[in-house]
Structures are given as structure tokens and as C-alpha cells.
């Protein structure tokens, strides 16, 4: 991953958009990736305290991964999007659709009352192929028994918009340590756990993302030291995400 370069020479960085319910582990995933590349614990994307009901992330912030001891960054970036909160109404589904096409400026603060529109200072009227999202990743907590129908509906709508644009999609199942005792005991049991397998199948039918595009991950959360078993699953997921995004970005041409 350290040597990755986008196939399309016009693309500066593969843009990964993470979306999913509040507390699913979007920020923690970005932190986990950053930890691996820095070789130590980091907290760039600030994960929230457990059981935080309101979403903690509210800005359209792009996170870059710095190359160790340099001023340069790796050619992939992550946008950690606001949790799909339902209490405040129609949230950001429309904004997320705009983000997919590259219309949303960095640091835009989501407004649950109204969606972004042309003319707003945070609206990019003519997005470049670098502003666009190249791969969409849905993040779910493996312990949530049933995703709320409203959230599921929002997520479906976002995925449909991505599909219409041809943007590839993956799902990441987090909190797998808390989902199964065998996995908590030893993360290497991840593909042996019948319980997790069933969970993944259930998710496949409810979110309609195929099993071979669904990746189990345990984010760094309570650890104070790096752990190679945690890294292995994060890197498996990251590799697939970047490959999918790179294939899509390779087909984009400057208009
Ligand atoms: N045990 C465990 N805890 C996790 C995992 N992933 C995230 N967490 C914890 O779950 C809580 C929520 O994680 P966040 O990364 O803040 O979730 P988020 O999706 O960014 O949430 P919002 O920004 O509020 O939408 C934090 O306390 C994390 O430490 C995981 O894989 N295993
Ligand atoms: Mg967050």
C-alpha cells in the first residue's frame, strides 16, 4: 500500500467516502488506517465516546495519510461523513449524493434543515475528477441486530445514487470483537466464527451488498499499542477499497 499510485495519472488521490449509522466506526476506521501508516496510535479523525447518540462527525472533512517523516501524503484520502441521523429529519442524503459527484467543498458543515445547492459558497459548480468520490464504503456495527428501516432506506438511496454513477461499493462490518467471544479471544478466528458468518449473511440480505464485498474489521478502539492481527484485517479491507476505487478512477477522463 505504501507504493500505491493511481493508474490514472490525472488523479491525485483515490477518494473514499465512508458512510453509515452513528457510532458504526467510520472515524475509528480512518484512525486505524492512519495508525498503521504512522506505526503508532493517532487520533486525527476523533472517534466519539461509546453510546453517543448524536453524531459526532458533522463536517465534510477529508483526511489524508501523511508519509512518515515527510510533508507528503499517500495518494488516497478518506471522507468521514456525518452519521445517518434520523431524528432531525431528512438529513444529509441529498448532500451525500452531491458529494458523490464532487460538488461538496471540504469542511462544509452539514445542515440537517436544508441541503447544499448551487450558489452556496461550499458548492463546487464544476467538480474535477479529483473532487469526485471514487469508492463508497458502507460501515456497519456487527452487533446491531437490525438496522433501523429509515437508516436502511437512506443507505439504499445513497447506494442507488452511487450505482447510477458507476461508483463501486463495499461494506465493512466493525466491532467484530464484541460480536463473538471467539473473535474477541483471538482475532484470527474471524473466518472460523459461525456466528459472524451468519451475521454477514444477514447483512448481505438487508443491505444488498454481496458477501465478497463485505469485510470484517476490528478497529483500534481501546488498545494502546499496535497489534499485527488488527492491522491485517484493516489492510485487507483497505487494499480492496483502494483497488476498487482505482479501477473506477482509471476510467474517468477530464471533461
Ligand atoms: N470494540 C470495538 N469498538 C469500536 C470498533 N470500532 C469503533 N469502536 C468504538 O465505537 C465508538 C464509535 O466509533 P466512531 O468511530 O466514533 O463511530 P462513527 O461511525 O465515526 O460515529 P459518528 O461520527 O458519530 O457517526 C468509539 O467509542 C470507538 O472506539 C471496533 O471495531 N471494536
Ligand atoms: Mg465519526
TrEMBL record:
InterPro entries: P-loop_NTPase
GO terms of biological process kind: immune response
Domain of life the protein comes from: Eukaryota
The protein's name in its UniProt record: Interferon-induced protein 44-like
Organism name: Poecilia reticulata
Amino acid at each position: 500500500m505504501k507504493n500505491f499510485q493511481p493508474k490514472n495519472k490525472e488523479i491525485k488521490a483515490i477518494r473514499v467516502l465512508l458512510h453509515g449509522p452513528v457510532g458504526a466506526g467510520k472515524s475509528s476506521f480512518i484512525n486505524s488506517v492512519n495508525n498503521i501508516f504512522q506505526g503508532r496510535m493517532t487520533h486525527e479523525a476523533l472517534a466519539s465516546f461509546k453510546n453517543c447518540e448524536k453524531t459526532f462527525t458533522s463536517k465534510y472533512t477529508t483526511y489524508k495519510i501523511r508519509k512518515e517523516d515527510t510533508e507528503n501524503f499517500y495518494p488516497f484520502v478518506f471522507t468521514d461523513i456525518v452519521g445517518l441521523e434520523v431524528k432531525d429529519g431528512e438529513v444529509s442524503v441529498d448532500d451525500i449524493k452531491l458529494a458523490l459527484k464532487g460538488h461538496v467543498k471540504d469542511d462544509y458543515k452539514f445542515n440537517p434543515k436544508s441541503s447544499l445547492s448551487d450558489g452556496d459558497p461550499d458548492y463546487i459548480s464544476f467538480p474535477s475528477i479529483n473532487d469526485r468520490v471514487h469508492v463508497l464504503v458502507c460501515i456497519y456495527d456487527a452487533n446491531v441486530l437490525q438496522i433501523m428501516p429509515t437508516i436502511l432506506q437512506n443507505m439504499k438511496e445513497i447506494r442507488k445514487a452511487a450505482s447510477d454513477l458507476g461508483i463501486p461499493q463495499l461494506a465493512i462490518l466493525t466491532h467484530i470483537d464484541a460480536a463473538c467471544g471467539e473473535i474477541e479471544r483471538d482475532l484470527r478466528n474471524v473466518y472460523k466464527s459461525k456466528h459472524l458468518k451468519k451475521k454477514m449473511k444477514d447483512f448481505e440480505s438487508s443491505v444488498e451488498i454481496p458477501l465478497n464485498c463485505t469485510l470484517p474489521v476490528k478497529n483500534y478502539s481501546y488498545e494502546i499499542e499496535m497489534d499485527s492481527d488488527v492491522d491485517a484485517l484493516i489492510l485487507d479491507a483497505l487494499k480492496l477499497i483502494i483497488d476498487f476505487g482505482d479501477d473506477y478512477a482509471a476510467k474517468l477522463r477530464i471533461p
